Amino acid sequence: MEKVKKIATTVLAVLGILFVLIIVIGVLAGKDDSDKDKAKQEQTTEKSKKEKDVKEEKKTEKKKNTQVEDQEEKKKNDNVFECEYDDTKLEYDEVTITDNDLGGKVLVIYFNFTNNSNENKSFMTTYTVRAFQNGVEMNDNYFHVGQETRNASSEVQPGATVRVAESYEYTGDKSTITVEGEPWISLGEKKLIHFDLNFK
């Protein structure tokens, strides 16, 4: 009996040791899995952060591109080629460079002038158009260079449209010319038309 008791105690001790070992191994394995999960989570977090950084970078780049496009669009939209004033309409048509009667070069800017009022009106007594180059107003050309410059001072009946022109002495300078139009009698009002002419 004593022998059986001793064997039972030994078996219980061995089982206890095995049980403790199994628990220790389980804890270590769980810790290992936990470490793997933690490492995986860190990798996922780092990957997400990189993706977020790339998205932010793309977003910033897109914003910059949009700002440049907006500036270009604004620059384009800053040009006003037509206007309505005092029951008339003025539309830019084209620009040419020609010779005057004295052999000098002349810049000619053409417009379509429409009288929408109930009385006769002329382009010349409705609008003043000036051209500037290098920040300085260009000199008027006082010679007619075609019917359109004559039309500028002609009375136009209600509902009619006529092609008119303003002409300026041209030195051959290829720098940008800025055109501004305002009411014939202006008290510092906003420009009705303003646009740039570029030459190559």
Summarize the structure in words.
This protein has 200 residues and is α+β, with helices and mostly antiparallel strands. The chain folds into two domains: 78 residues; 116 residues, Immunoglobulin-like (Sandwich), CATH 2.60.40.1240. A hairpin with a 5-residue loop joins strand 2 and strand 3.
Structural class: alpha+beta
Residues in helix, % = 40-55%
Q: Under the CATH scheme, which architecture of the largest domain would be assigned?
A: Sandwich
Q: For the largest beta sheet, what order do the strands appear in spatially?
A: 1-2-3-8
Rg is 43 Å
Termini gap: 120 Å
CATH topology of the largest domain: Immunoglobulin-like
Q: What overall form do the CA principal axes indicate?
A: rod-shaped
Biggest β-sheet description: 4 strands, antiparallel
Poorly predicted regions are 63-76
Count of domains: 2
- Multimeric status of the protein: single chain
Supply the CATH class of the largest domain. Answer: Mainly Beta
DSSP summary, beta strand count: 10
Order of helices and strands: HEEEEEEHEEEE
Strand content: 25-35%
Number of helix segments? 2
List keywords for this structure.
alpha+beta; 200 residues; 41% helix; 10 strands; 4-stranded antiparallel β-sheet; single chain
Quick summary:
The protein contains two helices and ten strands, in the order αββββββαββββ. It is of the alpha+beta class and 200 residues long.
